[in-house]
Design a protein that fits this description.
globular; about 25% strand; mainly beta; two-stranded antiparallel ribbon
């Protein structure tokens, strides 16, 4: 069983050491390299820490959040894409 704490992605209502994921759940803050990127997920707790659960085509997958292309592995132009209300690194095919 896991603890789910709801939050508003626009505010900082999570406990210290946690951040609000785009799907409204408090998840551990990232302090390393994401390990679950590309895996299927139901919500961001399946992806934490360091990645969040976002749509990828018709499926939900763990994605690495980003602000700029250089935040993504390789840092190629277009690596950081808009996904709904947030940005995430493109998944490798």
């Amino acid at each position: 069983m896991r603890c789910e704490e709801k939050c508003n992605p626009g505010s900082g209502l999570c406990e210290p050491g946690y951040q609000c994921a785009p799907d409204g759940l408090c998840v551990q803050e990232c302090s390393g390299t994401p390990v679950s990127v590309g895996e299927d997920c139901e919500n961001s707790l399946d992806c934490a820490p360091c990645s969040v659960c976002l749509s990828s085509g018709a499926e939900l997958r763990c994605r690495q959040p980003c602000r700029l292309d250089r935040d993504c592995p390789g840092g190629a132009t277009g690596a950081c894409e808009q996904v709904g209300d947030t940005k995430a690194c493109r998944l490798s095919l």
